[in-house]
Fold each of these.
Amino acid sequence: MCGIIGIWAKNNKGKEQIAQLPLALPSLKHRGPNHQDYKLYSKCGLGHARLSIIDTDERSNQPFVSDDGRYTLVFNGEIYNYSSLKKEFEEGGVQFKTTSDTEVLFYLLIKKGVAALSDLNGFFAFAFYDNEEEELLVARDGMGIKPLYVYEDDSVLLFSSEVQAFQSFDIELQIDKSALNSYFGLTYFTENQTVYNNVNKLLPGGFVKLKKDKKGEGVYCDNLVDKLDLNYQDATKKLRDLLTDSVAKRMVSDVPLGAFLSGGLDSSIIAALAVKNNSKLKTFSIGFDHVYFDETNYAIEVAKHIGSEHINLILSKDDFKLNFQSFLSAIDEPFADSSAFAVYLLSKRVKEDVTVALSGDGADELFGGYRKHFADYKIREMSGTKKSLIKVAASGLKPFRSNRSDRLGELNRKVQKLSDGLALDHQNRYFKWCQFIPPEDRKALLVSDYKSLESPFTELDWEDLNAVLLADQKLVLPNDMLKKVDLMSMAHSLEVRTPFLDRRVVDFANGLPSNYKVNAKGGKQILKDAFRDLLPESVLNRSKKGFEIPIKEWLNDEIATVLNGPLFRSEFIQNQGLFNHSYIKKLQDEWSDPNFGDKIYMVWALIVFQHWWERNSTSA
């Protein structure tokens, strides 16, 4: 787990900018504190910041360069099938100098080029350069676990693990006002969007190939697979075998390793399997001194059941105040999933004991674990009479509070959301339910370039519930969930591994009939049945609750100061040219309204954005 950066020169002006790469590398040091280095060539430059995990010796430092100087690799991530790939090379007479997966990837790319991507089971972003042919290959793993941002103009193509590294180059970064529709609707940027109109994300499974003056790009894999013909019993056994092996492969580390444990089904399964490989496994959970939001009792129960050494972190409003500024500074582009704050502090605590942590990320998107998945299933199966009753109930409950801060408010919020989805087709219902901030609020906030958000997944078969899961794998997983974990963990030089996103597990899950995953009993049915014997019954039967923080309560004392502060004053907002100050004032006036509800996400998104703007305004 590391950070990479690179530059490709298109002309003489671009070649002059290659010398600026060493100035950008220090911005990635938190991703790789153990070693930083770079290599500069006439056509390109490559930089690397290393977090040592496998073969911690300096012989595995990067950039990794061949003895003759022809080939150079910078690589961020882990290749979990590197041992079997290495064996094939050794049988062919190759003598390895290290025990790292980096060297295996290096030889595989020399041998196969782009074709090597299909052989990899892991998570990665890398750049591989052939100095003799002046050819550069840049690629990202198929699930988008590791980030890779690309800037391009007439002179250069830049790429980096984080957007902020581009600021060290002599380039102009311009705010993409149209992308703010996504940010203020979803709390993150979608697909290949970023906050800048001349910076894109390389899509999951994407690659760029540059040779002299030619550019080629494409996607080497997606998550669309053929349907499997397996009965439920055989599928359950196969899933258990695949995930057990996936966890075992991710236990390989030359530094201390632990596991996140929320007490939910996903992380509990991973921790239970990990304990079988390490009886002294440390597990970590995070909770809140707020009765409604705290669920650490489940994590403690699971830890006792599986026999892990458990560390429990409870956050308070004081923790929020103390760490808020450092948290905001860790955000490389606006990202307003509020649970990122909890992941930030959890990662900070975990890093005190281990350098690698396993997580349960990805299971919800693969096996139908979100409440919206079960709600979508119920609507598909619902009679017209029941739909009418829900609409009547929603209308009657509308005047009452709707929020996420207590059980009654949450129940009303769910009823309103379910009622809203009844009138929509499957695809539009899915995309509406993905949005945290209503269109009317975004329209009132943004000065210009407001557009309604539409689903980009028209190619999916929306009559099958599997389309909802596939859409989440393309939208929510890489742009929100994985982005959050990567950004917050790497802020503390912590590597997080995701066994559910093993390529074999992903392809298997996506090939299963949707009713193996979501049915009348709820979501993740096959996952529960595959691992029922490993976990307490309470974990198997507990209802799903999102990982959220009590942000309205934590902000309550300071909100007047924040929204009246320098970043939200009328003159500042007017000069910024992005937002209507009258709407921000309206948010402040309505703060105490019991029906403020999901507008809290607008406030949070604004706070994150404005603090990001303040740090980056010279480039914006």
Amino acid sequence: MLRHQCVVLCVGALLLFGCGGSGESSSRPTEARSSPAQPAPASPVLPTPPVALQLDDPDSFYDRPAEYPRVHIAPMRYIPISTGQQLGMRLTLPADDNGEPLPGPFPVILVQSGYNIGLMSFAAAPGGVFLGIPDSYLVRRGYAMVSVDVIGGGISQGGWELFGEKEQAGYADTVDWVKAQPWCNGDIGVAGASYMGITSLFTAQVRPQDIKAVFASVPLGDAKRGIVGTGGLLNAVFMGEWMALTHLTSTQNVPLMLLQPELMPEVMAATQEHIDHIDNYYLPLIERAIHGDAELAYDSPFWRERSPLENMDQIQAPTLIAGALNDLFQRDAPLLYESLRDQVDARLMLFDGDHLSNFMQALPGTEKTDPVLHVLLQWFDQHLRGIDSGTERIAPVTQYVKHYKPGNWQGFISADNWPHPAAQPERWYLHGDGTLTQQAPAWEEAERAMAAAPFAEYDYGKSADGGFLKLEIHPSDGSDCSLSYVHWTLGVAGITQIRPCYWDHRQLEQDALNYETATMTEDYFIAGPLQADVWMSSTTADAVLSVRVDEVLPSGRVVPITNGLLLASLRAVDESRSRYVYGEMVQPYHFLTREHEQLLEPGEVVKMQVEIFPTSVIIRAGSRLRVSISPSNQAQGVLNLVQRARVEGGVTTLYHGPEYPSSLALLSVPLSALN
């Protein structure tokens, strides 16, 4: 666990110090000094607008020369908020040749982080805005940048509580503070990746009249369904990684105290608050989750408050959402876009990879070859500075397609909507002999059975010195050697351990109930959400279904694509909030509430409508499409103690036939859409 967190910190250091060779100089963090007002630069020289953005063609990128020679990174300071606490803040301003900050006023880009701004912002880097690092590319082009530690993070006071009410109040207070500063011209945008993307959406909701543009990369949408409680289980692998990372970074304040000793008393006190929070908040929360506390085990106001999708109708600002096909929030990014597309100027960009690789894919490039950096400038120039940057030339949806084209920034297609407007629902039936066909069963077929998996082991508490949170999950079903484990460790497992089984599920699915098509005679393009309708019974009061979708190559390699997970007792579906395409349900919305819980009667046959997270992939000619069903995927979800008692010792039976036609519903897109 600690190894994983250290790797994340090392990656942060790479982003911080390894991107300095960009020609973008920055001043050392000294006290901001007033300097004589200088004439505003001439209107920026704009490029000839390209016909359309092409991610594989740098000539299509929007760009313009820097207006200012350097940036000035001011020292960390505290700003007050209405809760009576103070937040740590770092300001970066355009600077003259001597590194002196210019008075502005400027449009402001605000980034609010749970990962310690003071630790991450000693130097400037192009693209740093995604992590709260001073962004030399944007600031030299006429923007001020404000980076803030949320309550309980970095040097900020208080204790972190997972995007709770106090933290969200701090977002609003920070906007009010920024507006009152002389270097702010009143036009504020919010930006960031992951945590910082989530705070961007919340801020645009609590201060809709003040936020003029949003650029949110890999953000959360639905806390319960999208990540923490997928399928009604507890996503403990993710929570262990995320909570430990957040707490670890909140205590790494020694470097800042050495650089700014005048803040030492306040920073030491805040750091001690964060350490004390292990006993005050983290451990009680973990105990409640393990023992099945209803507020955490079911969908509840606790999770609704922490779900940006609940209040997207409050956002008035043009918003660009970026996601990735194996990201933590692969389910949520398209839903966020859909919630906005009819009310504001909105775009969706879906990339390849997992959470961490989504950040790292641009590292080998430069500001000339990284398209995301140029889209970021294009978006803010249009909506914060009123420059005609041609954002209308960015397609409504830009989407990566797995197995389409090899190479960096290759394999993307554009569309007018999501899911793809040309998508058609198709249904593939699971047969008792293990085949997968588009012919519905005509007679009763063999049943197939599987026993409940042994339960995952876990260990939690404090480090030996009492300074760090520890929460470790040890899957017992083999899923620690799967793409899901890479996925839910934020992509870190794929860097710390290069294991072939992460990308080849032959071993993982050896004993699963597998269903395969005949060899594909031509490429088969799937794009959008999927749904497995599986008829099953159990010998116990509850059961788990894990459904994986794979491509089986001629070599026998099993390439994981996407998956779903569902607890039988929480199978009830809200049809009014589910997705239908041409009358076929392809994305169920499960209530996941206590009042909709339905325990099984032993032997009772029920229909499990399993949500499988969306993807975009070509099943290549010569390969086979596989649906693999097993009794657990502990890398994605584990049972609490109440649920364990209901599942233990159970045998699940799957049914196939005219009365119980188990099947997979997906969205197929014509190959002509790849042009």
Amino acid sequence: MNRYFTNNRIILFVFCALGCSISCHQPEDSQPPNILLIMTDQQPVSCVGAYGNDKIKTPNLDVLAAEGHLFRNFYIATFPCSPSRASILTGRYLHHHNVFTNNVMLDHKIPTMGNMLSEGGYHTGYFGKAHLGGSMYVGRSGGDGIDYLHPPGSPSDPVGNQIGPYWHHDRMVSDSGWITKKQDGGPGEDQSQLGFQLWKGGWKDYKNWLIDQGQDSFAMWAGNHDDLQSAPEGEHMYSLLGEAYHMANYFTGQTSEFIKQQNKDEPWAAVLSFFGPHLPVAPPPPWDTLFALEEITLPANFEDDLRTKPHRQKEISSSYFNGVWSRDQFKDYIRRYWGYCGYIDEQIGRIIRQLKDSGQYDNTLIIFTSDHGDMLTGHGMIFKLGSNGYEELFKVPAIIKLPGYGSGNQQHDQLVSSIDLLPTILETAGIPIPDSIDGQSMLPILNGSKQTFRKFIFSEIHSSNADGKTIICRDDHYKYVYHWLSNDVDEFYDLVTDPGELNNLYTQAAYSDQISRMQEAIIKWAQETNHHYATLIAQKASK
């Protein structure tokens, strides 16, 4: 008997004895599907052709959507990068995995996709960005070592054994929300973690690969998000690494090699996690000039005076670029972004072709998503800008190709959360879904048996400052952005009549009942999910 099913029976018995929920669909004599989770960093739905952008070039994702399922209302459960990735890989809300901001380490005792699949008989590998082991930029001399703040031509960075010291943030409780405390230690991106058996990260592993390729000068600088950009933000930039030495090429190659080495009689699971198109938006040539400026149209909500919005948005709207940008500068940002997404799409195509050529495509669950979006000039903003809850940041692409589920080219409008991915993966693999997971399997949507999935979507931001503590509630019509520790105005949008979120209806009496209904939903959610700050969250609504 296949080793997977022997192990799975044992695990099934143990989990059922503990009262875990389970739904298994794999016949006893069949091979469970391989699993490939592909994540990008900071890619909004407008940057995938299948979501309606007829200019951007993402042919491989478009074909994947045509052969599978596309979710139109898929939202991240928390923001920004580290918290969102923790929710995807654990199936938990922010207050249950405790990674409330970047550089907070995920507790190794919390089960992840890697742990559960490895224990369920899968050979597992992780390739690319995780950002759940503390700081990614160990060895940098300036603060967090944020790469895109280093101008081209700066002194080189250390490589190899000179990398260090490692550090992370601990989560500390305060009377006004969680705060951080810097601590020594943590794996960064440089050690196997999250329960995956094989690990390749974007710092030491990638630098050592560059050295092996004879590219010592690149290795002294590049890594993680550092694409070796040719110019500062605001000017046209591209990656000096070129296609051959770009980290997207490296991680795709490592994933391909992992798949090639697998025993086809046993299942494998891989995460391919790209660092792009996150800033610096510097794709390798020719992808930076794939689109002419004249081809780019600024979004309908580009012009927003932010008059009815929280004051903080006015303060931060230009915090990632200097001075007043021209319309051409914004258009150049978009064309570079589209080019970067196109380059990543080409890498995704390499893996899909490999799966098809090796006969594994039809028995591989493929999921594509992103950890969050980018403002991409919406409301006159770029980058992430974590004090708001705009669709550009929180609604991300989700495309699923699942063997045996539908004839393809299926699109779904149900409200779905990123915490729902892991239980979907587990049920597909025939592995029990622990009660500790907050998400629910999406298979009832995929097989057409469930037309309504979630009444509300809840997403959370929990920055250290008062203005950055926000819970977003969305139903099939409205969105309420509740800044629960700030005295600033909240936000309420009618997404049916105002999809660009230009008109904040929070102060309009005609919507008071709807606002109260969604306030009550947030408070109930915080209480029922045992949020540590449920009482504090309720205070502003009660005033």
